[in-house]
Amino acid sequence: MAGPQCRPGTLRRLGIAHAGVCGIALRAGSSSGSQRMKYLVLFAILAVVFGVWRHRREPVAQQPPRAGNPPPPQDMVACAHCGLHFPRADAIVQHGRAYCCADHLRAGSL
Ligand SMILES: [Zn+2]
């Protein structure tokens, strides 16, 4: 026997696939198997169509967005005090030695 979900108003709202399942439940005791097979075939076709549609969609979704050419690599230097590697553009240079911050410049020049 069908549950309370399979009332006619509910079938209209839930769509074709669920209606097929409810149709099977309503006809479980009947001798007519062709109605059941009709819904099973319909459900199988919908599942195959959904699988093909998803398979074709996935490669498009997995492509990373292209943002032109990648930026050129930056020249890196090591801090003379702590050894941290950082871009040369951010370095504080004194007497030919590079420092990562003003504190290490002071500590390195002592
Ligand atoms: Zn440092």
Structural class: mainly alpha
Q: List the secondary-structure elements in sequence, H or E.
A: HHHEEEEH
How much is the average pLDDT? 77
The helix content, as a percent range, equals 40-55%
Summed up, the helix count is 4
Flag low-confidence runs.
1-6, 14-22, 24-28
Main sheet: which strands, in order across? 1-2
Tally the beta strands: 4
Overview of the molecule:
The protein is mainly α and 110 residues long. The protein has 2 domains: 4-62; 76-109, no CATH class. The protein is built from 4 helices and 4 strands; from the N terminus they run αααββββα. It has helices at residues 8-14, 16-26, 33-62, 102-109; strands at residues 76-78, 85-87, 92-94, 97-99. The strands form 2 sheets. A two-stranded antiparallel ribbon has the order 1-2. α2 (16-26) runs antiparallel to α3 (33-62). The radius of gyration is 34 Å and the shape is rod-shaped. Bound molecules: zinc ion. Zinc ion is lined by residues 79, 81-82, 84, 99-100, 104.
Name the descriptors:
110 residues, mainly alpha, 2 domains, 4 strands, disordered N terminus, binds zinc ion
TL;DR?
The protein is mostly helical and 110 residues long. It is 51% helix and 11% strand. The N and C termini lie far apart (89 Å).
